Write a sequence for this structure.
């Protein structure tokens, strides 16, 4: 039987969507019933008091969570977020309610055995409440007490071979799409790159030395299922630099109605006969496709990799063979400054071998941001403050027309004196010989 | 010039103590400013060793991390 009356939270359950309130209530009942006879290491009333303190916050319009803390596991500066409530006598079950972040597997592939182990640990040593997954992608375990932290860490690392995730001014837990494991559009092995960089940069994940948080996300192609372009400080998006492969016979099969466009995704209603002109050619954002005389032609130099044509006719059009990825820098959500998308910095780089070229770029970028970034400034804000050309300089990247986001607005690439023949000095009489005053 | 651990450690402790009246937690950049000739990663190695010796502790709000002398400042019950 729940301890607290929660009329405001109860109202949230009345909507059409699944409710987190109902989920927590389910856990409240489960913990009080304790059918497996578990020797709970934090109070059984934890989820109950969580509802109680949330109801109080709704009534008063104020939070009762205090800000941060020094809790963590030995040697790690991330992965645990200290949370304490300011009404511990009234809500003892959530006096400590620390969050633990665990590094999710690449592509979020799980074995049921892994999930059972995880739930068993969290039922014994935590609130039983999880968030699969947090906004960054981690496995989020919600609510435990300080004495349980080292125990949880030991069991997760030793019994499950899994590490903590990132939090604070660290590299955050890198996240990727499922890539080549399931998807024919993947232009590189996004899971492998994610895993490799996660291991390479363990020190950055666990020992904070950045001005603020830093996120890597890996999308195998420009459909961007992970939304890396908007959600990560450094975004790795698969692309190709040769030509989209076209099978004209299969194009004809789509046009003739033998194959369903969009892999049959719009088959539920009568959308009419497939119209390649209207549904593919006219929708190409750079106007680089032509369909004439039963032949589909693509001007690949103008293609911007939106992949719409490939999605409509996946059996006829395929990604190119010379594959790699683009790197974009600086996306962020609106916390201190407004939101921004990543800026294309490396138009094409191969993702092969030990990824040494990619790592060189990453490290040069970090060195610059660590040196120049202000406290609590995301790299996208440093980029705006000091100029995109600085990033190009420090990473040894040659300026390229593809870096220009929009012409005649904020022209951030300036000539330097040493780059101009004769420098800034000029003979005025020579100039006047051609130009009157 | 390479950092000598004991000298750097003493300088960091002295810095933290000198600010103790107004601050108990410091950004990473506060420490790199103490060693302007050194690379940030070398300063990080010193801080990591001090964390491992439990001279320093991490503090985190969840989004931002800071460093402080162990035991300095106010902490929630059970944190010290």
């Amino acid at each position: 039987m729940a301890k607290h009356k929660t009329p405001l939270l109860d109202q949230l359950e009345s909507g059409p969507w699944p409710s987190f309130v109902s989920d927590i209530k389910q856990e409240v009942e489960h913990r009080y019933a304790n059918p497996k006879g578990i020797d709970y290491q934090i109070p059984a009333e934890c989820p109950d008091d969580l509802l109680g303190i949330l109801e109080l916050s709704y009534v008063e319009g104020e939070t009762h969570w205090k800000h941060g803390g020094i809790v963590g596991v030995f040697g790690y500066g991330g992965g645990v977020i200290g949370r304490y409530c300011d009404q511990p006598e009234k809500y003892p079950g959530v006096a400590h309610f620390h969050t633990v972040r665990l590094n999710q597997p690449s592509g979020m592939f799980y074995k049921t055995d892994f999930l059972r182990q995880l739930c068993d640990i969290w039922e014994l040593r935590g609130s039983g409440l999880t968030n699969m997954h947090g906004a960054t992608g981690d496995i989020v375990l919600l609510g435990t007490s300080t004495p349980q932290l080292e125990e949880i860490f030991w069991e997760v690392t030793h019994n499950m071979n899994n590490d903590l995730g990132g939090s604070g001014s660290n590299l955050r837990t890198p996240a990727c799409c499922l890539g080549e494991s399931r998807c024919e559009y993947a232009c590189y092995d996004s899971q492998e790159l994610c895993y490799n960089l996660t291991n390479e940069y363990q020190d950055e994940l666990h020992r904070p030395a950045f001005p603020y948080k830093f996120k890597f996300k890996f999308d195998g192609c420009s459909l961007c299922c992970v939304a890396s372009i908007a959600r990560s400080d450094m975004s790795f998006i698969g692309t190709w630099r040769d030509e989209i492969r076209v099978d004209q016979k299969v194009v004809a099969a789509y046009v003739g109605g033998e194959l369903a466009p969009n892999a049959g995704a719009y088959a539920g209603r009568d959308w009419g006969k497939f119209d390649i002109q209207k549904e593919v050619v006219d929708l190409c954002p750079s106007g680089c496709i032509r369909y004439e005389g039963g032949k589909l032609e693509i001007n690949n130099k103008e293609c911007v990799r939106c992949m719409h044509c490939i999605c409509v006719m996946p059996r006829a059009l395929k990604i190119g063979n010379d594959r790699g990825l683009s790197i974009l820098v600086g996306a962020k959500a609106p916390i201190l400054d407004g939101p921004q998308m990543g800026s294309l910095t490396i138009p094409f780089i191969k993702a092969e071998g030990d990824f040494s070229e990619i790592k060189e770029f990453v490290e040069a970028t970090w060195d610059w941001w660590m040196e120049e970034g202000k406290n609590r400034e995301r790299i996208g804000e440093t980029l705006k403050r000091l100029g995109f050309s600085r990033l190009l300089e420090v990473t040894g990247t040659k300026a390229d027309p593809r870096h220009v986001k929009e012409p005649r607005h904020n022209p951030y690439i300036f000539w330097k004196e040493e780059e101009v023949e004769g420098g800034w000095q000029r003979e005025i009489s020579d100039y006047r010989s051609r130009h009157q005053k | 010039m390479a950092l000598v651990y004991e000298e750097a450690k003493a300088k960091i402790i002295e810095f933290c103590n000198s600010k103790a009246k107004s601050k108990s937690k410091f950004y990473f950049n506060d420490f790199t400013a103490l060693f302007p000739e050194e690379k940030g990663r070398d300063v990080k190695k010193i801080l990591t060793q001090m964390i491992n010796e439990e001279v320093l502790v991490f503090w985190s709000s969840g989004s931002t991390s800071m460093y402080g002398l162990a035991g300095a400042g106010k902490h929630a019950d059970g944190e010290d």
In short: The first strand of chain A starts at residue 80 and ends at 81.
